[in-house]
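User: I want to check something. If I give you two sequences, will you return the structure for each one separately, not as a complex?

Assistant: Yes, each is folded on its own. Here is the first sequence with its structure:
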Amino acid sequence: MDTRHSHQQMRLQLPAASECHTFRMRMVAQLYQIECYRREQWKQCGRLLSHNQAAVEWIACYAADFPHAVAGSS
């Protein structure tokens, strides 16, 4: 979000619809990856994580490199 002064008025500039769509799609993709991570932890390690626990762990491990590196990809 950007605010700019123009002729003594303040104008609020919102992101374009395509930027909002892109952001939403990225969030959906991250939620999918978190759920995959949660299931992997159960299958491979016997760890039953809550959605929140899985999210915290996934974010700490993979969010910085998302979407280039995700859990389970080579």
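And separately, the second sequence with its own structure:
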Amino acid sequence: MSKHERNGADSLQSPFHIHDQYIKDLTFENPSFLVKYDKEAPQQEVSVGIEVNVASLSDNHYETSLDLRVQSNVNNEQLFVLELKYVGLISVASDLEKDILEAVLFVHCPFLMFPYARAIVSSVIGAGGYPSLMIDPIDFASLYLAKKDQSRATAAVS
């Protein structure tokens, strides 16, 4: 029995590999912390924004970044804002077609990186004196398709 027959996983080659993940930039501003103690203050509003960006580093090596912005307001007064740029260093197989390459870099890698970024956001907000925030899972495929549609619309107008 060959090695490949014993372990079928060895015979499959992944089209990509995430070599490393890290915080490239992190900002947390907490200018109005004491507002949370105001008895008449309504419940805080929290908004979450995310963007996926990809940069080519060299042949078959890329940087995929999750750019997250979490902001909380009460009566149009900012309680806190968190901005996180969480990056993965990725290499891909040289024979990937363009559509598959884009799906790997804009959908699959962000999907795998997101739980780590979400944990960082939750931890920092908790350390800032607020209840930890667990961001809902994100459909990166829909996000990618919407960005692609927007790019097409912008190109059509130009």
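Because they were folded independently, the notes below concern the second chain alone. The beta strands are 16-29, 45-58, 61-74, 77-92. The chain has one domain: 15-147.
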